[in-house]
Design goal:
- The complex is a heterotrimer of chains A (285), B (615) and C (338).
- Chain A is mainly α and 285 residues long.
- Chain A has eleven helices and no strands.
- Chain B has three domains: 245 residues, Rossmann fold (3-Layer(aba) Sandwich), CATH 3.40.50.300; 69 residues, no CATH class; 265 residues, P-loop containing nucleotide triphosphate hydrolases (Rossmann fold, 3-Layer(aba) Sandwich).
- Chain B is globular.
- Chain C is mainly alpha-helical.
- The radius of gyration of chain C is 24 Å and the shape is globular.
- The chains are: A mainly alpha (285), B alpha/beta (615), C mainly alpha (338).
- Chains in contact: A-B, A-C, B-C.
- The interface between A and C is large, with 42 and 48 residues.
């Protein structure tokens, strides 16, 4: 397929995919990659620096946190948390947001007005505040974090996709499909949706990056996935408490978040460039 | 008499795939003071490129490859960029094609005019303001003071063009280049703008280059016409003569393909295929027109003809000049003798459509009536034209008929059954009978579907399962029917030309077995030769398959050629209707008369009164 | 024109009221879902069940939900959110104390973001067509990926801990006593004429403001660049060249004017996000603003503060949106009255 080739030739897509692949591999193969149990505490070896620095221990390659847990293992298992949240939350937000966006954009009128007002109200809440408040209401835990992100971010999908659906809706070929005898359902799935799909894919990729950040923020504040699951945000919070002793503890989770988010952003950006504009023009002489 | 502009063997090339490909070659002409030169050609001929070459503002990748362009003796090509820029807007001015996008929407007319005058050298602010007001009055705009404070979106297309003409002539330029200045305007406005341009040209004694695709139009105001084909001049001579007695076969074919010159039942000349693309041209030796020329001989394919004198001041680039006048068309066009039945297929009674207007900040409820109390009927196999300018409501009628909009009041009756309203039966009845051929083929064809999938789209709609072989078979049938090669079935719409896309559009409508086609401006914007092919196609299809058509257009010549009956619309109402021949010979309503007068007469000998009339 | 502006302002404010009501309802609903016993939490641990019940009746918690909502609304309108369980002060006054600090930080950050964003955007536009363009595009994508939370940590780590250049805790060094005139520290130090305190305050604000500014400037850079690119595709720019105007004149007199409109709209939206972004930055830098207040309250399920601060954030962002809409109307002649 021509599109696939083009995507693979895009520098951004390849670099982005590469970065995400690293994180994904860590997430999928965590039990095989991590040297120790991430929750195992060794209170005799707290706040150790990375193994190559003075005072480090080779059993803990990147050092330990304030409870003596191995930083590297927590980093790798943290990838699992981050990726799980990223994938599930963005797909969930995408599902809700895109369905409502297509309904609103295609049918217009009352449907559009209602959905538009709901989105307006929802978006009046700053996302960070809303997710914090939701976590207070829902309690901590991986599933609650995913639910909170879906509940906050579906509106962004909805708003952006709705604009695109409106543009496609104006095209004569959509009207022509109705005149040929297509039902509304068929028109949306065969004519409108293939046109909005490129934007959808881009948004999902970007959303995954955002989900990683939100999860980190919630874990940082202490309202994340809970104490039993390793999370990068929690690692940062812990390191910040002991900032002069644990420079490594701060550095590596920051790097991990940066890697994941930049990877998703580059991928999303690259996909946007290859899928959207070129699709129409590339096939012209 | 000195020449303002002397172009000598100008060549422009474009970088395609790393190699320079010629776009314009061998362009030479002289333009004396105060004369009008017309550059006529179809799209792709290179005529717009000439204007940009003069300004030295070619698009990226394009460059002047040879020749000289002498403006009052100084070579524009070899001039320093600063010196050249100093000429633009002062000695050399341009009148653009689409007036409303040619002005910055965020600045007032006054601010932009002031800036232009400042560039042109007018000293004090008061002087500039007075000059602006004087020029706006000179182009017959009322209340110039108010106008200076307005924004471009508050003006109509015609008014914007007048402002731009005022700006162009305000610096008293020696040369003005008008690139299709009337194409984007309504027909009745066109003739007034043309008159204005001619008036200003006379008054300031400016040399003018008038670029257009309309040979008939050019012959009316240009002193000299140069016809371009595939980047080279093929004929150059006095305006009237080039039109009434063309020397080059291409010009003659172009004239014969123009519906306005087809008197009575005369067929249009069909030029096969289309103008070759740049790469194909580069590979060609010999005459560029040879593949399509009806008079082609072996020598034409090998030797490239040069401009040879036919008469005093009139030359053409052809090896067989004497054979040109032999080109002719059939006396009676095929398929035109179809008799439409008496029974009406579609009847419209009292149709009206009102929209609630967007009343600015206030919650005021004002209404706009797009269509008011319209009555007409269309019989089986009848081609009926709906004529009007922008804002007349003709597109709204199309939408009302197919159900894209619901009428505010009135009836639509098909075969005696009610077809108006949002109910499922009405919708089913409408789409079983009528199909719409949309105006913009770019927007009308889903760029993600292959042609095969588009022409047989109707087969996807039903719940009956259709086998793949049936679909392939039908695709082939339909494509052949509309005169396209079945190999094109696997392509995508962006890979086709404008004319081909319209054929696909028509094929799709036929694929749905429509009995009434609603064609909304389907040939406007197409080259004359492509237009002729499509018109011919419509006749042939009607003879073979049988269908009626509501043909919406603003082009009266096409309407006269194609349609047996005509309806004139003005501001939402039908002001006149009847047999085309009768209405055009003896128009009753003043608006119809204005419309007809706005079209340049086909016969060169007949005076074009609307052009000479007062503004 | 002033009349239409006031009319629009009035209209937007009126329209905002139902939105605000719905926001309140949402806030109310979420917090009522809590498995927390509000009455019990506001009593000392030694309270008996009967006392808790009495407190519950006093707080109106035994009434039907819609009733409770109306009571809550009335209290909120008067700024009565209850006493913070933890800090033992009225929640409303706590918010009033910390709001100026947050506003000050947000404004400083916005100034930095604007300067960087517009400058960067022009620079990116200037290098279009050259080899630097790709570098610029990739750099801006990468920078865009870094949220304010990471920037705050980066800067703290490098300039605060590693290089020891700038302070990273609080608004002032501990030895100073904060003058309390308006609540805006930079202004207050000016008003009481303490230049030493002024500079100390500035130094303390640099890292948090830069963190926020750096995080939000890439979006501004991008939108300015793409707006300029879009404008240059327009027909009238080509016409201006044909009329002989210089490239410089075209850029300054025309293109920038047209490109600034979508840029300003985005900047307005960004300011909304930036304002809520202060929350995390305050936590990381122990900056005594609303964000810090909120995070502590959230950790302790301190409802009165959560409600008060949550509502304040929403109101501020809503006001920003209204101002942006009005600004857009003022600048875009197409939307003004005929």
């Amino acid at each position: 397929m021509g599109t696939l080739n083009r995507c693979l030739r895009s520098g951004r897509v390849m670099v982005g995919l590469g970065m995400i692949l690293i994180v994904l591999v860590c997430a999928l193969f965590a039990p095989f990659l991590a040297p120790s149990d991430p929750n195992e505490q060794d209170l005799l070896s707290i706040l150790l620096p990375p193994a190559w620095m003075a005072g480090g221990d080779s059993a803990f390659p990147l050092g330990t946190d304030s409870l003596g847990r191995d930083e590297l293992s927590r980093l790798i298992y943290g990838a699992r948390t981050a990726m799980t949240v990223a994938v599930v939350a963005s797909l969930g937000a995408m599902a809700i947001g895109s369905i409502l966006a297509h309904l609103a954009g295609y049918f217009g009128g009352v449907v559009d007005w209602i959905i538009g007002r709901v989105v307006d109200v929802w978006m009046s809440f700053p996302p960070v505040i809303l997710s914090l408040i939701l976590m207070v209401g829902l309690g901590t835990g991986l599933d609650k974090v995913i639910l909170a992100i879906i509940l906050v971010d579906w509106t962004r999908f909805c708003r952006v996709l709705r604009s695109e659906v409106l543009v496609v809706r104006q095209r004569d070929y959509v009207a022509a499909a109705r005149l040929i005898g297509f039902s509304h359902w068929r028109t949306i799935t065969r004519e409108v949706f293939p046109a909005t799909l490129p934007l959808l894919i881009t948004l999902v990729s970007l959303e995954m990056g955002i989900a990683v950040v939100v999860e980190a923020i919630l874990s940082f504040v202490g309202l994340g996935v809970g104490a039993n699951q390793p999370a990068w945000g929690q690692m940062i919070a812990d390191a910040r408490q002991h900032i002069y002793d644990s420079a490594g503890g701060l550095f590596f989770p920051i790097l991990a978040i940066f890697l994941a988010v930049t990877g998703f952003n580059l991928l999303g950006d690259g996909l946007r460039r290859t899928l959207d504009v070129r699709l129409i023009n590339a096939r012209e002489q | 008499m000195t020449d303002i502009l002397s172009v000598r063997d100008l060549g422009v090339s474009a970088m395609i795939g790393g190699t320079p490909v010629p776009v314009i070659r061998g362009l030479s002409f002289d333009l004396p003071v105060g004369k009008i030169l017309g550059l006529v050609g179809e799209s792709g001929a290179g005529k717009s490129m000439v204007g940009r070459a003069i300004a030295q503002l070619l698009p990226p990748g394009f460059a002047i490859s040879s020749g000289a362009c002498l403006f009052e003796g100084a070579d524009l090509v070899r001039m320093a960029a600063e010196a050249r820029r100093a000429l633009l807007g002062r000695e050399i001015a341009f009148i653009p094609q689409s007036p409303q996008t040619a002005l910055n929407p965020l600045l007032t007319v006054g601010q932009q005019f002031d800036e232009q005058l400042r560039h042109a050298g007018a000293a004090s602010r008061r002087e500039r303001r007075e000059r602006a007001l004087a020029m706006l009055a000179a182009v017959h705009l009322s209340d110039p003071e108010q106008l200076l404070r307005k924004y471009p979106h508050q003006l109509s297309g015609g008014m914007c063009q007048r402002v731009l003409i005022a700006m162009a002539f305000s610096s008293n330029p020696r040369l003005v280049v008008a690139d299709e200045p009337t194409t984007a305007l309504d027909v009745t406005i066109q003739v007034r703008i043309l008159h204005l341009i001619a008036e200003m040209q006379q008054r300031f004694q400016t040399a003018l280059i008038f670029i257009t695709h309309d040979l008939r139009l050019a012959s009316r105001i240009c002193d000299e016409i140069m016809v371009m084909y595939a980047g080279s001049p093929v004929e150059i001579g006095p305006g009237r003569d080039v039109f009434s007695a063309p020397a080059h076969p291409y010009t003659r074919c172009l004239e014969l393909a123009d519906p306005a010159t087809a008197h009575g039942q005369r067929a249009l000349f069909l030029l096969p295929e289309q103008m070759p693309g740049l790469l194909a041209l580069a590979r060609m030796s010999g005459c560029h027109f040879a593949p399509r020329c009806p008079n082609v001989a072996d020598a034409c394919r090998n030797t490239r003809p040069v401009l040879t004198s036919v008469r005093e001041g009139h030359s053409a680039a052809c090896l067989r000049l004497s054979a040109t006048s032999d080109i002719t068309t059939a006396e009676v066009r095929a398929g035109s003798a179809v008799v439409s039945s008496e029974k009406p297929l579609l009847r419209v009674e009292g149709l009206s459509k009102r929209y609630a207007a967007m009343g600015g900040m206030f919650l005021g409820r004002s209404e706009v009536t797009a269509v008011r109390n319209v009555d007409f009927s269309i019989a089986e196999n009848e081609f009926v034209a709906l004529v009007g300018e922008s804002g007349s409501g003709k597109s709204t009628i199309a939408k009302l008929l197919v159900g894209l909009e619901q009428p505010s009041s009135g009836r639509i009756v098909i075969d005696g059954r009610d077809a108006a309203g949002p109910s499922r039966q009405a919708h089913a009845l409408r789409i079983a009978t009528m199909q719409m051929i949309f105006q913009d083929p770019q927007s009308a064809l889903n760029p993600r579907r292959r042609i095969a999938s588009i022409v047989t789209q109707a087969m996807e709609a039903g719940s009956r399962h259709v086998s793949a072989e049936d679909r392939v078979q039908r695709t082939r049938e339909l494509l052949v029917e509309v005169g396209m090669s079945p190999e094109l079935a696997t392509r995508y719409p962006p890979q086709l030309s404008g004319g081909q896309r319209q054929r696909v559009n028509i094929a799709r409508a036929l694929g749905a077995r429509a009995r009434l086609l609603i064609a909304d401006e389907i040939v406007s914007g197409l080259d004359v030769s492509v237009q002729a092919q499509l018109l011919n196609l419509l006749f042939r299809l009607r003879a073979e398959l049988g269908f009626a058509m509501l043909f919406i257009s603003h082009d009266l010549s096409v309407v006269r050629y194609l349609c047996g009956r005509v309806l004139t619309m003005y501001r939402g109402e039908i002001v006149e209707q009847g047999k085309t021949v009768e209405v055009f010979a003896n128009p009753q309503h003043p608006y119809t008369r204005t419309l007809l007068a706005a079209v340049p007469p086909a016969d060169a000998a007949v005076a074009w009164t609307a052009l000479d009339a007062a503004p | 024109m002033v009349a239409t502006l006031l009319q629009l302002l009035a209209r937007r404010l009126v329209v905002s009221i139902p939105i605000l009501l719905l926001v309140c309802a949402l806030l109310f609903a979420i917090l009522r879902v809590l498995p927390v016993d509000i009455a019990a939490m506001s009593m000392p641990p030694t309270a008996t069940i009967a006392e808790i019940e009495a407190k519950r009746r006093e707080m109106g918690l035994d009434q039907p939900l819609p009733q409770q909502f109306l009571i809550w609304l009335e209290d909120a309108a008067h700024g009565r959110f209850g006493r913070s369980i933890q800090l033992r002060r009225d929640a409303g006054s706590l918010v009033a104390d910390t709001l100026p600090a947050t506003i000050e930080l947000a404004v400083a950050a916005m100034v930095i973001a604007t300067v960087l964003g517009l400058g960067g955007g022009l620079l990116l536009f200037h290098v279009r067509g050259t080899k630097l363009e790709i570098v610029g595009e990739v750099a801006s994508t990468v920078l865009l990926s870094i949220p304010e939370f990471l920037w705050a940590l980066f800067l703290l780590f490098i300039f605060g801990v590693a290089l020891h250049l700038l302070p990273f805790t609080g608004r002032l060094p501990p030895e100073f006593v904060r003058p309390n005139v308006t609540g805006f520290l930079l202004l207050d130090t000016f008003l009481v004429w303490r230049p030493d305190m002024f500079w100390a305050a500035v130094k303390h604000m640099i890292l948090p403001a830069c963190a926020l500014g750096l995080a939000f400037s890439p979006a501004i850079m991008r939108v300015l660049r793409s707006s300029l690119l879009d404008v240059y595709q327009e027909d009238f720019i080509a016409q201006l060249r044909l009329r002989g105007l210089s490239e410089g004149r075209i850029l300054i007199g025309h293109a920038l004017k047209n490109a600034i409109l979508p840029t300003l709209t985005l900047m307005g939206v960004q300011f909304g996000f930036l304002f809520s972004g202060t929350l995390l930055v305050e936590v990381i830098y122990s900056y005594p603003g609303m964000g810090n207040l909120m995070v502590d309250a959230v950790r302790n399920a301190d409802l009165p503060i959560i409600q008060a601060v949550g509502l304040t954030y929403c109101i501020v962002v809503l006001l920003i949106t209204i101002v942006v809409d009005c600004l857009y109307l003022v600048l875009n002649p197409k939307l003004r009255a005929r």
